[in-house]
Specification:
Strand order of the largest sheet: 10-9-11-12-8-13
Radius of gyration: 25 Å
CATH class of the largest domain: Alpha Beta
Oligomer: single chain
Strand content: 15-25%
Order of helices and strands: EHHEEHHEHEEEHHEHEHEHEHHEHE
Structural class: alpha/beta
CATH architecture of the largest domain: 3-Layer(aba) Sandwich
Distance between the termini: 35 Å
Largest sheet: 6 strands, parallel
């Protein structure tokens, strides 16, 4: 079972049509564009489908599609900030992007089956009641998109529908985002209240409610590499990753990869500070200042609710050398947001890190080319 990727976006030159369709005012345009630019890079649009025979001897496709968790997370941030209007804008942007996804789904199903889609029957309609969702989702056999006890799909910007398949192309079917009904319950004041109510619901399964702490330590190679891999995986799931590095200033190859992943923010010194000299007061002052500045930036991001996964790469070294504000670092780890995941790396992990970690992986060196005089290689060690 595989998901197909969708590349959905909105043309910023056409936001006047968007404003009319969702009953905004023209003065909202700049805020709409700002919020779109904020959330769109985090969108991870996907869909999965199965084709079955229907009772009439034809074919029917059952489709589940999602824009990922970006909209849920950003809406929740805005609701916590009591920016209900902003949360409503983000919700409408999600609806509009879903309408773009429908066109791509139609095209991809035709490409893979040679058949054309007809009208959509969405979950929650008379023909596809909500009570059927568990059986349908089980039949689809996927786990990325789920449902809660109220049969609301999670992530919320997800849809479940069926569509008959035909040998010949059908007339364009209607889409919610093109609806002109001014009294629709999905519009403005009525729906803003719905956003607030939904934000109060816990829609995540229990095992996702609490973020955990990982510790990669030991003398062996692979600690930073493991943190990089976890970061890429998390970003692929739509999570917002802050990848911070201590003790490092020179360019390393993973930074080039991270530039192509919009969900990963790198926080580190941009200039190479050279080797740390533990007996040199100037070196101690330089590294302490740099590390506390990194800590400042991390703390600001975390407090703003902009981080799902926080990587503190090589954090054991500034701790052990005393070149970071330990009290603030302790507070960051011990009092982290409940849902935030933390990854710690570095040798000689202090008891504080060990005691707070939920995962502990000790890298053991069995053999290393450096012992044979082979220096670190570009793209392998750095």
């Amino acid at each position: 079972m595989t998901f197909e990727a969708l590349n959905v976006s909105l043309d910023e030159n056409c936001f006047s049509d968007f404003i009319k369709r969702y009953h905004f005012n023209e003065e909202d345009k700049n805020e709409i564009i700002r919020l779109y630019r904020k959330v769109h890079p985090r969108v991870h649009a996907i869909f999965h489908y199965i084709v079955e025979d229907d009772k009439e001897g034809g074919k029917v496709a059952t489709v589940v599609a999602s824009l990922g968790r970006a909209f849920d997370e950003y809406q929740n941030v805005l609701v916590r900030q009591q920016d209900i209007h902003g949360a409503y804008i983000v919700d409408c942007l999600g609806l509009e992007l879903l309408s773009k996804a429908y066109d791509q789904i139609d095209a991809k199903i035709h490409e893979m089956t040679g058949l054309y889609t007809g009208g959509y029957t969405f979950a929650g309609s008379k023909e596809l009641p909500l009570e059927d969702i568990p059986a349908i989702m089980k039949k689809l056999g996927q786990k990325k998109i789920r449902y809660n006890e109220a049969y609301v799909l999670v992530p919320k910007k997800s849809v479940l529908f069926t569509t008959k398949l035909y040998d010949k192309e059908q007339e364009s079917h209607s889409k919610c985002a093109e609806c002109n009904a001014k009294n629709c319950s999905m519009r403005m004041e009525e729906y803003k209240g719905k956003i607030v109510d939904e934000a109060k619901l816990e829609t995540k399964p229990a095992h996702e409610e609490k973020g955990l702490i990982h510790l990669y330590t030991g003398e062996g190679k692979g600690k930073t590499t493991a943190a990089i891999g976890l970061s890429v995986r998390a970003a692929g799931a739509g999570k917002r990753v802050i990848f911070s590095q201590f003790m490092k200033g020179r360019e390393t190859s993973e930074l080039n990869s991270f530039e192509n992943l919009p969900n990963i923010t790198v926080i580190r010194k941009k200039e190479d500070m050279g080797w740390f000299k533990k007996d040199d007061e100037e070196s101690i002052a330089l590294f302490t200042k740099a590390h506390n500045e990194i800590l400042d930036k991390i703390t600001d991001k975390v407090k703003a609710g902009e981080c799902d996964v926080l990587v503190l790469d090589e954090v054991t070294y500034p701790w052990n050398f005393g070149i970071i504000d330990k009290a603030r670092l302790k507070d960051l780890i011990a009092n982290k947001p409940e849902n935030m995941e933390i990854v710690l790396t570095g040798r000689n992990a202090d008891d504080f890190f060990v005691d707070h970690a939920d995962y502990i992986t000790r890298m053991e060196k069995g053999k290393h080319p450096f012992d044979a005089g082979i220096q670190g290689r570009l793209g392998i060690e750095f």
